[in-house]
Design brief:
260 residues, alpha/beta, 10 strands, globular, binds adenosine-5'-triphosphate, binds magnesium ion
Length: 260
């Protein structure tokens, strides 16, 4: 397997805070990696770095063999809030990223209509964001990202604001779509269940200094549905990840207590 993203001894410091400490890891093309860890451990920092949004203090980042120094067009980002333009229709929002790329109008419309169909929103192209549910807004954001045919998708708790059922459904939809376009995914979540259900690799991060304390393959069938949670391997992995997160959370509370 090749490598799409490579972090070499990457460090990010904000004043006194070591947000990411001397981190080395790589992401294979087509892989789906989830990152879990306590609040403030540097998950968003790591994604921002891979997005090319941060100026790192140490090390280097390679994406597709190139030293990363700025955001690249082939990288799509999905945030927790859909960040749609309220004065634009769903179709216009889905086409927005293509406008910035100067894609001709007719092609924009065709591509946007196609991605809306793939996220199940064909009938809502003429609606405005305020007329949609939270799940539909997030689907629109996914459509916008897919319209640019990204090779790398970075998702920062994309379903964090949704109810659990919607979250599971959208998770499987996203999985299907990124597999279809063969995109590599790095996905931050607070849900261990989501990590086990969707990804083929889980990274657990520790707080202060932020570093990767577990890098585990998810050894489950490629065809994912909620029933995989019933498998022994899913239970074992959940327990392993939860064990690390519990220790992290307890340490964080103890530190807070000591600071009071
Ligand atoms: N722009 C910034 N300026 C200063 N400090 C920052 C900045 N961004 C992040 N930090 C600090 O770096 C650390 C890591 O933050 P980060 O947002 O990466 O955590 P996170 O794991 O995404 O947390 P959460 O789960 O709450 O989203 C935190 O201590 C945070 O306060
Ligand atoms: Mg974050």
């Amino acid at each position: 397997m090749g490598v799409l993203v490579e972090l070499q001894d990457v460090g990010q410091v904000y004043g006194e805070v070591v947000a990411l400490d001397n981190t080395t890891t790589r992401f294979e093309p087509g892989s789906f990696t989830t990152i879990v860890g306590p609040s403030g451990c540097g998950k968003s920092t790591l994604l921002d770095i891979v997005a090319g949004l941060n100026r790192i203090n140490d090390g280097r980042v390679l994406v597709d063999g190139q030293l990363l120094s700025a955001p690249r067009r082939e990288t799509g980002i999905i945030f927790q809030e859909a960040a749609l333009l309220p004065w634009r229709t769903v179709l216009e929002n889905a086409a927005f990223a293509l406008e910035a790329r100067k894609v001709p109008e007719a092609e924009r419309q065709a591509v946007a209509a196609d991605v809306l169909r793939r996220v199940g929103l064909s009938e809502f192209g003429g609606h405005y964001p305020h007329q949609l549910s939270g799940g539909m807004r997030q689907r629109t954001a996914i459509a916008r990202v897919l319209s640019t045919a990204p090779d790398l998708v970075l998702a920062d708790e994309p379903f964090g604001a949704l109810d659990e059922q919607t979250r599971v459904v959208l998770g499987f939809e996203l999985l299907k779509m990124v597999r279809h376009v063969k995109a590599t995914v790095i996905f931050v979540t607070h849900s261990i269940q989501e990590a086990v259900l969707l990804s083929d690799r889980i990274l657990v991060m520790s707080a202060r200094p932020g570093r990767i304390i577990l890098d585990a393959p998810v050894d489950l069938p490629a065809e994912r549905d909620p029933s995989v949670l019933g498998l022994k391997e899913a239970a074992r992995l959940t327990e392993q990840v939860w064990g690390l997160l519990r220790t992290e959370a307890e340490d964080a509370l103890a530190r807070q207590g000591a600071a009071l």
